[in-house]
């Protein structure tokens, strides 16, 4: 297979962000900001020919202006597969994004730190709030 | 897999294992139902969350 990571969530996210940022910076500028010596690396990531090198996640997230924890979760799936990624996050803890930390703060605030259970009714309401 | 060293970001809320089981369940459920889209905090969503929790 020539593009083993084609259509993975990581490849789609990178392609979307490069497109979204195109009015402000070029793909070559993003690649340089992320620390890739070769600007073609970004094309390879978008097409799924290459996986995101894990050591580049922080700089790539910054260049793409996405949450590093979010990109790390996607990159882990791509790097080691969903099952191994799940095992890694079970051991080290799942990286929480800035938005998730915000939701956690809201949850604590609104519930007066009562640590509410996720009930069946809560699940239904959350589907209405966040579902697609 | 390459042998690159990587660091998983933690948060001001502390490491994941310092969240309560209920908090982990809320965050994981939001991830699942939002299809991993990392939903932003909006006033409308906060109002809906407040209404949900105020209803007990």
From TrEMBL, chain A:
Highest taxon of the lineage: Bacteria
Coiled-coil zones: none
Entry-linked InterPro entries: Cro/C1-type_HTH (IPR001387), Lambda_DNA-bd_dom_sf (IPR010982)
All residue ranges annotated as the HTH cro/C1-type domain in the record: 26-71
Protein name, entry field: Helix-turn-helix transcriptional regulator
Organism field: Ruixingdingia sedimenti
